[in-house]
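4.2 Preliminary Data

To establish feasibility before requesting continued support, the project team ran the inverse folding procedure on a target of 368 residues. The structure was first converted into the token representation described in Section 3, and no sequence information of any kind was made available to the design step. The complete token record follows.
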């Protein structure tokens, strides 16, 4: 198969869809890999490194899309790329279509075979291609929150770990999944008081066990969210319902109870956000204030730690890239049921029910 790796064009998105190791693996398996010039520079991978691994460098994005049977990316195509997509072309990337109605329509109209990293699902319900970036984003959420709590960055002047004789900073995390666990690990490491809210009792027991009393767990209901939000210095939104738009769990009225100079980081913003006052921002202008509370809501948070993120991501995505390249979408799904839920658009229709439901579009399941 001919595989194309375009340079990402989302603002401050420095990741790339394949590392040189991924290129080497795919070329060894007999595939041709075209990489847009300087696609890997933001991740510290040069054209020469890609060429030594077996890739062919092309000068423009248009060339890559025109030649490739399968496009491997990191983020969803942006409007400048819509016209480059072709019928029956495989698109393998993060899509988050529940928050992207225009892109979803384009993929249907152009009859692209769209496989979303974030909905590929193991039998136990885990999301193997979302996990590495959720780990990165969760850890970044605490790091970023600590930065913006500093007075010189607009915050209230709180040190999350405190010092002797002074209370520690308080961190509230909505959602105890991969994002929540990693945000909590960083916050605990800094010495903060940490509260995690979740609706799954088994998950809360697991969190109590792994943190050994260093975090507080609370059942996620309106009363507990209200109190935890009002008391915290840093609020992290980490709620995920696979494939769906994120539910709004924190209202503007709750945000208004936070002390001015507090910080909100909504990691769920790429799925619409779980905090009412959140709207997507970018790395070039990442924050804004609502009622004196600093909001950081960048959808591609891992893009600024691109080298770490790219290598973590490719180590997870290469398995399915190899299967798709070897036999195509239809046979790949037959061989590996985990890929079935990854297929979001096929033959001009949305074939992943949560996306169709959230966007009010026709759902047509893919039949093996």
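Position-by-position output of the design step:
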């Amino acid at each position: 198969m001919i595989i194309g790796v375009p340079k990402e064009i989302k603002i401050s998105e420095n990741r790339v869809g394949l590392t040189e190791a991924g290129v080497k693996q795919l070329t060894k398996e007999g595939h041709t890999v075209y990489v847009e010039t300087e696609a890997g520079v933001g991740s510290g991978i040069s054209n020469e490194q890609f060429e030594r691994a077996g890739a062919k460098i092309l000068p423009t994005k248009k060339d890559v899309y025109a030649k490739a049977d399968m496009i491997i990316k990191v983020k969803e195509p942006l409007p400048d790329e819509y016209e480059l997509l072709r019928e029956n072309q495989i698109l393998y990337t993060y899509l988050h279509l529940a928050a992207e109605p225009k892109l979803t329509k384009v993929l249907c109209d152009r009859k692209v075979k769209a496989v979303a990293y974030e909905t590929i699902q193991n039998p136990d319900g885990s999301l193997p291609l979302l996990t590495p970036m959720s780990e990165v984003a969760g850890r970044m959420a605490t790091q970023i929150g600590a930065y913006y709590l500093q007075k010189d960055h607009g915050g209230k002047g709180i040190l999350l770990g405190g010092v002797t004789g002074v209370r520690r900073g308080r961190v509230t995390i909505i959602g105890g999944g991969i994002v929540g666990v990693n945000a909590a690990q960083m916050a605990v490491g800094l010495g903060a008081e940490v509260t995690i809210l979740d609706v799954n009792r088994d998950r809360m027991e697991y969190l109590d066990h792994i943190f050994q009393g260093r975090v507080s767990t609370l059942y996620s209901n309106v009363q507990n969210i209200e109190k935890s939000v009002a008391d915290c210095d840093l609020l992290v939104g980490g709620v995920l319902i696979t494939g769906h738009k994120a539910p709004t769990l924190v209202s503007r009225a709750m945000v208004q109870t936070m002390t001015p100079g507090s910080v909100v980081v909504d990691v769920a913003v790429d799925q619409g956000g779980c905090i009412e006052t959140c709207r997507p921002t970018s790395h070039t202008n990442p924050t804004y204030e609502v009622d004196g509370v600093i909001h950081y809501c960048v959808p591609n948070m891992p893009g600024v730690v691109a080298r770490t993120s790219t290598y973590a991501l490719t180590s997870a995505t290469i398995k399915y890239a190899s299967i798709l390249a070897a036999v195509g979408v239809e046979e790949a799904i037959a061989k590996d049921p985990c890929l079935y839920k990854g297929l979001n658009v096929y033959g001009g229709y949305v074939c992943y029910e949560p996306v169709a439901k959230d966007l009010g579009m026709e759902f047509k399941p893919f039949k093996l």
